[in-house]
Specification:
Elements: H1 2-11, E1 13-20, H2 25-36, E2 41-47, E3 52-57, H3 63-77, E4 82-90, H4 101-145, H5 150-164, H6 166-177, H7 184-197, H8 201-232, E5 240-244, E6 247-251, E7 261-264, E8 274-278, E9 281-284, H9 286-289, E10 295-297, E11 302-303, E12 308-309, E13 314-318, H10 326-336, H11 343-373, H12 379-392, H13 396-415, E14 418-420, H14 423-428, E15 432-438, E16 449-455, H15 461-471, H16 478-493, E17 505-511, E18 515-520, E19 523-528, H17 530-535, E20 548-554, E21 557-565, H18 572-581, E22 586-590, H19 595-605, E23 609-611, H20 616-629, E24 635-640, H21 646-651, E25 654-658, H22 664-669, E26 672-674, H23 680-715, H24 721-739, H25 750-753
Parallel strand pairs: 15-22, 15-24, 22-23, 24-25, 25-26
Antiparallel strand pairs: 1-3, 1-4, 2-3, 5-6, 5-7, 7-13, 8-11, 8-13, 9-10, 9-12, 14-26, 16-21, 17-18, 18-19, 19-20, 20-21
Length: 755
């Protein structure tokens, strides 16, 4: 079994199937269910809003064969659905050899040609259907308004019925042959044929006419929703100005390789991540951060794909190919977010599978039982009531609007600089009652400054600072950077500057949570926490200073300490107050900093609990304790900087990474990424989650309420098929339009989040 799993892990592959012609939400659920039954499929999730099918298959070599089967399934369930492309990403060593750029171009050109042909065929089909519909509507109007002989009226009504309902009739019969008895087209066919059977000719045609018009509005609403979401994520760069010698050519960003030079003019999107070689400009970061945060760049500055160049001309050296660029990763995460479905979505999918058969069974009982047991009841009367049940039986309003609501919420969040990796996490934000914050870089600015140096007897300040800078020379920690910065500033003020020569540094060792050890100019140097020196047997007196303290030992003798301080971010207190108002009951701070500093910051900001002097593994242990203490059904959120908090982010119910702009570690580790360094963005994410939840339940209540009401009225004989059609397509249109309200951008207000 282990060997089988290992082999599957090697060959498994993720793929995205691009679908065209997917207009029926209920059909999309059926397609997903059927695809999951195919051999070789590990997971399958359909994104109705984006017309994509996300797959994981256990054999990368069979993806093409599986795609053929999927297209057959999809077109069998909904006529006209086809596959327009396959995007895949190998997950293991058994990936196919990379294709040459020329082969990729040919494949892309072939796909584009097929897409154009499919669009043209679809356009011709739509025009033919529209022509039949218009002619049928005119004939119906003539038969209804003109005083004609009964036989002529019947013939005209039947011709009108066939013209108006041709698409429905054909799809129903085709699906019936394939065993799709509960297809909405087949149910509509039965309902209208039943009306014809009891000689309700005008009503049968009118209902079919109304249903087709409703479908048109429903399709328009869905397409409008899709366009709104697509426009929301319109941050993909269209081209790059590739520099080759003295020439500049416009090329797709995908064709630019790492190390090549590109030119970015004012007003253009930055197409790829890179480093500025020549030029100075101001960049608009709003596409990734949600707000216009101007960023000044010059030679040596790093820039990210998705920014907009506002002022100067920049020559940039590309550091990442497009597939690995920030904008591509962001778009990929947002697109894939729909594959992680919320509990509400999964419940409504299950509910829809049960709802339709139950209503159809109710229709059958309503048609046949009353005439048998109620004196004076006629079959035609109760059949008419049963037909109302059939029309109402389609759960499209629920199946369409709920995924659109969640996708709209994820899209709206991304526009605000908040990446949410799944509908499940968006829904989970509604149950947050405990929020745990890392301190450094999350609550504080992470910009450390040396504010004090104290030397022990026998040492001087210059020596202490030089040896401390040498010890921290290779460290990437912000505290190390502050010590190096102070040493560099002091050194440049002197007449005889010498700096640190890295050739003099040997045996460098960084100990997480403790500090660093090295040998500099032949002397052993330690720099870090008091624990580091104490465990090495070096005696010292701990200093009750408020700030981060780096204790220094040279040749195993205590040499003094350096005091470093950090500033709390401006919006932290407002964000924490807002979280309290949003229903968060416990605020906790975890940090590796000293107890004195941590308690002072915790008291200043109003935290309920503060855990200090923690190593990375100890943070996980504390988080597990807090998980056990939380209320049943509630969620715990951990907010960290995403760089060194990956284990804690992974352990929390919802891991939130701060400052994901340009940070691969943050984007990979967390469930939610706040692209800026603002804690208030978490509050914004909760507001969007609350708004999305409200809209979802509005649609559920509205759709079910109308449908149940029409069913009751239909059973009593007080509702006609007109009302039934409205309860189907009319309610769906209203629910879709309501779902799109979550896309509206609105600032956080206290009354939005109070519960």
């Amino acid at each position: 079994m282990r060997e089988e799993k290992k082999d599957m892990a090697i060959k498994s592959q993720e793929a995205v199937i691009l679908l065209a012609g997917l207009g029926c939400a209920n059909c999309s659920v059926k397609i997903e269910q059927e695809v999951r039954k195919l051999d070789g499929i590990i997971t399958a999730n359909i994104d109705f809003a984006g017309s994509k099918l996300y797959l994981e298959v256990n054999d990368s070599e069979k993806i093409t064969d599986i795609a053929v089967q999927i297209e057959k399934i999809a077109s069998g369930i909904e006529a006209g659905v086809s596959i327009t492309g396959i995007r895949s990403k190998d997950m293991g060593a058994a990936s196919k050899e990379e294709k040459t750029t020329e082969q990729e171009k040919q494949k892309e050109q072939k796909e584009q040609k097929e897409q154009r042909e499919q669009r043209e065929q679809k356009k011709q089909k739509v025009n033919a259907e529209l022509f039949c519909f218009v002619i049928g509507a005119v004939i119906f109007a003539a038969a209804f308004l003109l005083k004609l002989k009964p036989a002529v009226e019947i013939v005209l009504f039947l011709i009108s019925y066939l013209l108006v309902g041709s698409q429905i009739i054909w799809a129903a019969l085709r699906n019936f042959v394939r065993g799709k008895f509960l297809d909405e087209n087949f149910l509509m066919l039965i309902a209208t044929v039943g009306a014809l059977a009891i000689q309700e000719y005008p009503e049968a045609v009118a209902v079919m006419l109304f249903y087709r018009v409703g479908e048109f509005f429903q399709d328009s609403a869905v397409n409008r929703s899709r366009r709104s979401i697509s426009e929301l994520m319109d941050i993909r760069p269209d081209y790059a100005n590739l520099m080759k010698g003295d020439s500049i050519s416009k090329v797709p960003p995908e064709e630019v390789r790492e190390g090549q030079m590109i030119l970015i003019k004012p007003g253009e999107k930055v197409p790829l991540d890179g480093t500025v070689l020549v030029g100075r400009s101001v960049l608009d970061t709003s596409a990734l951060t949600g707000e216009f945060i101007p960023r000044e760049v010059e030679a040596g500055s790093s820039i990210l794909a998705g920014f907009i160049n506002k002022t100067g001309v920049l020559t940039v050296k590309v550091t990442k190919v497009y597939e690995q660029s920030t904008v591509a990763r962001v778009l990929d995460l947002v697109e894939k977010a729909t594959s992680k479905k919320a509990k509400t979505e999964n419940f409504m999918t299950t509910f829809a599978r049960v709802y339709t058969p139950v209503i159809v069974l109710g229709a059958a009982l309503l048609a046949f039982l009353p005439p048998l047991f109620i004196e004076g009841a006629t079959f035609s009367e109760w059949l008419n009531r049963a037909l109302v049940f059939l029309v109402v039986s389609c759960p499209c309003a629920l199946v369409i609007s709920i995924p659109l609501s969640f996708f709209g919420g994820i899209g709206g969040a991304s526009r605000n600089g908040i990446l949410i990796k799944g509908s499940n996490y968006l829904e989970g934000l509604n149950q947050v009652r405990t929020v745990v914050f890392d301190k450094t870089g999350t609550l504080t600015e992470g910009v450390f400054e040396v504010t004090g140096i104290q030397v022990a007897q026998g040492f001087d300040e210059d020596t202490l600072l030089e040896y401390a800078a040498a010890a921290e020379y290779f460290s990437g920690h912000p505290i190390a950077a502050s010590i190096l910065k102070r040493y560099t500033e002091d050194d440049t003020k002197k007449l005889n500057t010498k700096g640190i020569d890295q050739k003099d540094i040997h045996q460098y060792q960084e100990i997480p949570g403790y500090g660093v050890k090295t040998v500099y100019q032949g002397k052993e140097v330690m720099a870090g926490s008091a624990r580091l020196l104490t465990e090495e047997g070096i005696s010292l007196t701990q200093i009750p200073e408020v700030g981060t303290i780096a204790y220094i030992a040279i040749d195993r003798q205590y040499a003094g300490y350096i005091l470093i301080t950090d500033r709390v971010k401006k919006d932290v207190q407002e964000a924490l107050r807002g979280l309290r108002q949003a229903g968060v009951k416990k605020l906790v701070m975890l940090t590796g900093d000293t107890k004195a500093i941590s308690e002072q910051v915790g008291q200043q900001l109003g935290f309920d609990q503060v855990y200090a002097e923690l190593l990375p593994d100890q943070k996980v242990a504390v988080l597990e304790e807090l998980e056990e203490q939380k209320e049943n059904g509630s969620k715990l959120v951990f907010v960290g900087d995403g760089v060194n908090d990956a284990p804690v982010l992974a352990r929390a119910d919802i891991g939130v990474a701060m400052g994901g702009l340009g940070s691969d570690a943050a984007i990979e580790a967390a469930d939610i990424v706040l692209m800026t360094d603002e804690p208030a963005k978490l509050l914004e994410a909760i507001r969007i989650a609350r708004k999305t939840k409200g809209i979802v339940w509005q649609n559920i209540g509205f759709a079910l309420g109308i449908k149940i009401g029409v069913l009751i009225l239909g059973a009593m004989g007080a509702a006609t098929m007109w009302e039934a059609v409205f309860a189907d397509v009319g309610v769906a249109v209203i629910a879709i339009l309501n779902a799109m309200r979550v896309l509206k951008k609105k600032k956080v207000k206290e009354y939005d989040i109070v519960i």
